[in-house]
Structures are given as C-alpha cells and as structure tokens.
Amino acid sequence: MKKQLLLFAFAFSALSLSSCQDDDTQAYEMDMMKGEWKTSKTEVISGKDDKTVIETDVPTGCSAKNITEYRTDYYTAYSAYTGTGADCQLSYKSEGTYEYDTDTKDLTIKYTNDSPRKYKVIVLTSSEMKLKQMFGNIDQDGDQVIDNTYISYKR
C-alpha cells in the first residue's frame, strides 16, 4: 500500500511540475512577445528548399513606422502610418486578440471584422521576432511549389 501511495505521490508531483513548467514557459514567451514591434523585413522564401530568397521587402518611409503590439492579456493591435517624407500620420488601427501555443509555436491573430490568421513563431527574443505566414502563400517562382512568407520584427 505504501509503495502504491508513494508511486501515486511521485506521479502527481511530476505532473504538477510539468504543468507549472508549461505555465512558466507560456508566461516567459508572452512576456518576451509583449510590447511594440516594427516590421524590419518581409521575405518570400522558396518552398522547395526553404532557403532561397525570392523577394525581400524592407519598409521605408512612413510604412517603417507601422507597429504591431502584443499584450499578455491576449490583446493585439496593428497601427499603419501613411504620408510623405517626415509627415507621417496614423491611417488606421486594427485591434483584436491572439492565441499562442508555446509547444507548437503556433500564433493565431484575429483582428475585429477579419478572419483568423495563422503564423508559426520561428524566432522570439526580447529584441527580435520572426513569423512564418501560414495562410495566403502562393508559388511565386513558377516551380509548382508553394513559397513561404516570413515577417521579421525588431523593437
């Protein structure tokens, strides 16, 4: 009986530790994600080798001021700026929610009046985030293989 009780206590404590560890990982990664991010570049990478860069877009002018914000209460917002030269004005702001799974690195963003958009978190540090877009990708280099879009952000 003591062995069974001891085995049960061990299994329960191992389960408790692993669930706390998952909670800690979730809190840690969401803490790194929170804040304002600016797009540093968007790349289309060949779906054939997931290495060859087909196209790169680096925001310039007012679009370099665009901000994506994440908070730990699952709120997200995207603010877009337009204008000429140094005269940049906020042209629109979309607000919504997001879901993030630390195990699979799946990020789903749902802005108000829009359908959910899925991403895979490839890099997440306190100063850099890189997402792989999991929707709307097409074959851009004519090789009959869907190419991948990656969006890099900096603080």
Secondary structure blueprint with pairings:
Elements: H1 2-33, E1 35-45, E2 53-57, E3 67-70, E4 75-84, E5 87-101, E6 106-111, E7 117-124, E8 128-133, E9 148-154
Antiparallel strand pairs: 1-2, 1-3, 1-9, 3-4, 4-5, 5-6, 6-7, 7-8, 8-9
Task: Describe this structure as you would to a colleague.
The chain contains 1 helix and 9 strands; from the N terminus they run αβββββββββ. It has one helix at residues 2-33, and strands at residues 35-45, 53-57, 67-70, 75-84, 87-101, 106-111, 117-124, 128-133, 148-154. It is globular and about 40 Å long. Mean pLDDT is 88; it is low at 5-20.
Radius of gyration: 20 Å
Poorly predicted regions: 5-20
Number of strands: 9
Instruction: Tell me the fraction of residues in β-strands, as a range.
Output: over 45%
For the largest beta-sheet, the strand count, sense and barrel status come to: 8 strands, antiparallel, barrel
Question: What structural category arises from helix and sheet content?
Answer: alpha+beta
Span between termini: 57 Å
- Give the overall form: globular
Helix content: 10-25%
**What is the average per-residue confidence, as pLDDT, rounded to a whole number?**
88
Main sheet: strand order:
1-3-4-5-6-7-8-9
Q: Secondary-structure element sequence? A: HEEEEEEEEE
Helix segment count? 1
